[in-house]
Amino acid sequence: xxxxxxxxxxxxxxxxxxxxxxxxxxxxxxxxxxxILVSSSGTSGWHVGQGPHPTSKKVWEKAGYVHxxxxxxxxVNDFFVNDYILVMDSSNFENVLALAPSQEEAKKVFYxxxxxxxxxxxxxxxxxxxxxxxxxxxNQAEDSYQKVLKMIESAVDGFINTxxxxxxx
Length: 169
Prior knowledge:
By secondary structure, this protein is an alpha/beta fold. The chain has one domain (3-168): 3-Layer(aba) Sandwich (Rossmann fold), CATH 3.40.50. 40% of the residues lie in helices and 14% in strands. The protein contains 6 helices and 4 strands, in the order E-H-E-H-H-E-H-H-E-H. It has helices at 16-28, 54-62, 78-81, 90-99, 103-106, 142-168; strands at 3-10, 35-42, 84-87, 109-111. The protein has a 4-stranded parallel beta sheet with strand order 2-1-3-4, sandwiched between helices. Strand 1, helix 1 (16-28) and strand 2 form a beta-alpha-beta unit. Helix 2 crosses helix 6.
């Protein structure tokens, strides 16, 4: 069976990217055409080795997602082991692209929300790029994490519905 390697990337790798990894890893279990392997990392090294932010984990678990996480930092090598690198905001987008070893590898980098069917027409290099961002809920109220989860779920569904059929073709 073919496999697809996907990396979720945010700043600290304790809120958004582990939540996105939890959602995709759980939803990937229903994909029968291929194995989807999901990882997550941060562009900074501030939280390397730590678990997820407690509110982030609480929100994804309340939604029924099971996922174990330990923070890591995004490295150049991640380009070689992943088919898709899905970032949460423009800072992540720029930082990850700056590490791309080639133009070919840079083509793997997308805003996660560019797969949201409601936002897929937005050019990430246009002045509308901010609409593709998943806002950082770090240390905000639980409802901020809930909003982020909804954004992530919509984008992950779009990713699965876009990428899996394309890889099958």
